[in-house]
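Q: I have 253 residues here and want to know how they pack in 3D. Can you give me a structure?
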Amino acid sequence: MTVTRQYVLQLGMGSAVETLCGQAYGGHKYDMLGTYLQRSAVILCCTGIPLAVIYAFSEPLLLLLGQSPEIARAASIFVYGLIPQIFAYAINFPIQKFLQAQSIVLPSAYISTAALVLHLLLSWVVVYKVGLGLLGASLVLSLSWWVIVVAQFAYIIMSPMCRRTWTGFTIKAFSGLPEFLKLSAASAVMLCLETWYYQVMVLIAGLLPNPELSLDSLSVCLTISAWVFMISIGFNAAARFVALNGMTWKQNN
């Protein structure tokens, strides 16, 4: 549940950069894309700090919510290895929106595919051969996210397609943070309210007489729901980009 909340919260907090990058690119303010990317990364990394604290104290928090000791212990072991992933996601999401605003999607798709293959191989080795179990699985997941972040950022630096939009690190990333945070927080609240009610079912399932079986069954249903959710987010991102560029084009002409 905590993992899903992290995704939703940071996804909502990063929604502002999607709008701003699309407007900046459509308005031919190419240098602002890099500034918005860095500004969003700063906001999301700061958001990740309290999330990391929650992860660190996940076991007592779950026990406080009435979950069984076995479930609380297993969940805490898994989320300990996901703490590095919090900050990887905080950087990855702005990078993706930075590239999508320029209609650059294939490099991210290739990088994600390669990371998936690497993730499957490393997960098999770490979980079954080395025997690290849940902690190993989560550590490999964090590593895979950082591989994606590093590879995408390397593409941005080296690709000629990003020369106008990425001009290097700038101190401007730390200016206008309150306004950026206000816009991000509004998006986060909206998205969180839309999705967190799913996680209430997870807590309720953990309070049933046979919580292990209940959570196993519910996790399958929620995983399928998450796949559908991610597919719709992809189409939504494409539609928003086209709409923003179309509105900006009309204003400029």
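Q: Anything worth noting?
A: DSSP finds ten helices and no strands in the chain. The mean pLDDT is 82.
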